[in-house]
Amino acid sequence: MHINKELYEFLHKKTWELTENWYADLDRNSVSGVYASQDPSVVEGLKQQNHEFHKRFIEVFQKDEASFFKEFEKWVLAVAQDKEHLVTPIQDILREFFRTQDQYLDLLTEFIRLNVNKYSKSQIESWYRITIKTFGRIMIWFTEEHNNHSQKRLNAQQELIVELSSPVISLSREIALLPLVGDIDTARAKFMIENTLKQCAKLGVNQLFLDLSGVVMIDTMVAHQLFQLIEALNLLGVKTTLSGVRPEIAQTAVQLGLSFDHISVKSTLSSAISSADLT
Question: Is residue 186 part of a domain?
Fold first, then answer.
């Protein structure tokens, strides 16, 4: 067993000292994110998180392994989801974990020096071993949670970008515009179809201007999906007017055998809008 009350009490008295020494030795010129912040509220929050780590970590010398990790979960999840840590490079976070691990190894050495010949060699070795092992597990655990939440944040941002890049703009009570800009891949095309159908139904649109003049490139799969969108809109009673069709897009559509029947086509968006009654 690695449980030792005397060692626990020795470490317990050192928790704030550990935090203050850790922050004082922090090289803010070589780190970024939360560690480089000069905001007093961020600094205070960082110190509180660090101190909470120590309060929880020293329990490894008093509790069984299962209970220790169960109670440590709250700290890992809270800090991994913390907005300041999410914008901090994971290598900087791991570097600080290792610095903190060194603090504990130094404290173990100090405790052993103050208690010469009081503990067996195997007992002392078990303290070093459990410290390194526990830090390793916590770092892997934290890295996984940090990456999971970073990915969720990135996905949410990408979804917002896609949504903003496919806006259905109301021009009048029954007429709307969908201006497309940039490259359209399969994922964006799929979202565009779903969003456009929902927005047209919500707005009560019966005519939609679909402008492709800002689309740089389109592949056969996306061209096919665009025509599926037009067919779906037709089923909803929405007449689609295409404008800004580039020669390469027209060629792709012809090669696919896609029909322009029942689709109004204009060379430019301005001519398409001029042909409509927006009153």
Answer: yes
Domain match, 95 and 180 both? no
Q: At what angle do helices 220-235 and 186-203 cross, to 10 degrees?
A: 20
Strand (E) or helix (H) holding 183: none
pTM for this prediction: 0.62
d(Cα 219, Cα 189) in Å, to the nearest integer? Answer: 11
User: Taken in order 118, 120, 125, 130, is the CA torsion positive or negative?
Assistant: negative
pLDDT digits (tens, 9 = 90+) for 43-98: 999 999 999 999 999 999 999 999 999 999 999 999 999 999 988 999 999 999 99
Tokens of 239: 């007449």
88/44 same-domain check = yes
Specify if 279 maps to a domain. Answer: no
Domain membership of residue 83 (yes or no) is yes
Please state whether beta strands 239-243 and 207-214 pair in parallel, antiparallel, or not at all (unpaired): parallel
Mean pLDDT of 23-27: 93
Give the mean pLDDT of the chain. 87
Domain boundary residue, one of 136, 161, 186: 161
pLDDT value at residue 262: 65
Contacts with 274 (C-beta within 8 Å, 6 or more apart), sequence order: none
Residue 103 to residues 15, 44, 96, 98, 269: CA-CA distances in angstroms?
Answer: 11, 20, 11, 9, 67
pLDDT over 80 at 276, yes or no: no
Residue with the larger pLDDT of the pair 161 and 143: 143
Its domain, for residue 98, covers: 5-161
Length of the chain: 279
Per-residue burial over 115-132, b = 16 or more CB atoms within 10 Å of its CB, e = otherwise? eeeebeeeebebbeebbe
Contact 214, 248 (CB under 8 A): no
What DSSP string runs through 136-149? HHHHHHHHHHHHHH
Task: Report CA torsion sign: 141, 145, 147, 148.
Answer: positive
